[in-house]
Write a structure and sequence with these properties.
Keywords: Chaperone, Cytoplasm, Nickel. GO terms for molecular function: nickel cation binding; unfolded protein binding. This protein is mainly β. It folds into two domains: 6-75, Urease metallochaperone UreE, N-terminal domain (HSP40/DNAj peptide-binding domain), CATH 2.60.260; 77-137, Alpha-Beta Plaits (2-Layer Sandwich), CATH 3.30.70.790. The protein is 12% helix and 37% strand. The chain has helices spanning 88-99, 118-126, and strands at 6-12, 21-27, 33-40, 46-56, 62-65, 70-75, 77-84, 105-107, 112-115, 130-137. Strand 5 and strand 6 (70-75) form a beta hairpin.
Length: 177
């Protein structure tokens, strides 16, 4: 990553957006959770994302470049399963089974969305639910320790001191999902 690239060092949330938008980036849910990486906008603008901490970028947010210009963040459509059930109790049971597999899920009032997986689709159907493929942006729940949408802000009790610019292979003492 060249140091000559202009840097994006801040995020403005969509509800506080103002300024000159000069390009946009289209990212799937995995690429919307970053701290530092080289990026290229749809219009060709190259820049270095260089945030102080890993941050979840939401659809409609903007990255602030060093010179004050903005790059719009757009959630890319992804291949998902839309899971539904006959009633609330049946849907809650399906959510429990999905959560038991520790996969990202977007929980709505009458449906759950997960990344497309034919094995999980068959499991859901075997439990009496429906699992239909859809293309749409994916906005999964942040998880028990994700804190605010703006990044990794939480106060769980580690017995050791370290930064959080890595995956968490160790236990946090709670069931996730």
């Amino acid at each position: 990553m060249s140091s000559s690239l202009i840097r994006a060092t801040k995020v403005i949330r969509r509800d506080a957006l103002s300024g000159e938008i000069v390009d946009r980036i289209v990212l799937d849910h995995g690429d919307r959770h970053r701290r530092r990486m080289a990026m290229r906008g749809v219009g060709g603008l190259s820049f270095l994302l260089d945030l102080p901490a890993p941050t979840v970028l939401d659809d409609g947010d903007a990255l602030v470049l060093q010179d004050g210009r903005l790059v719009w963040v757009e959630a890319a459509p992804e291949r998902l399963l839309e899971i539904r059930a006959a009633d609330d109790l049946a849907l809650k049971r399906l959510i429990w089974h999905i959560g038991n597999r520790h996969i990202p899920a977007e929980i709505g009032t009458d449906a759950v969305h997960i990344a497309y997986d034919h094995v999980l689709a068959e499991m859901v159907r075997g439990l009496g639910g429906t699992a239909e493929p859809v293309e749409r942006p994916f906005r999964p729940e942040g998880g028990a320790y994700a804190g605010e949408a703006a990044g990794h802000h939480h106060g769980h009790g580690h017995a050791h001191d370290h930064g959080h610019d890595h995956p968490h292979p160790h236990s946090h003492g709670a069931v996730s999902g």
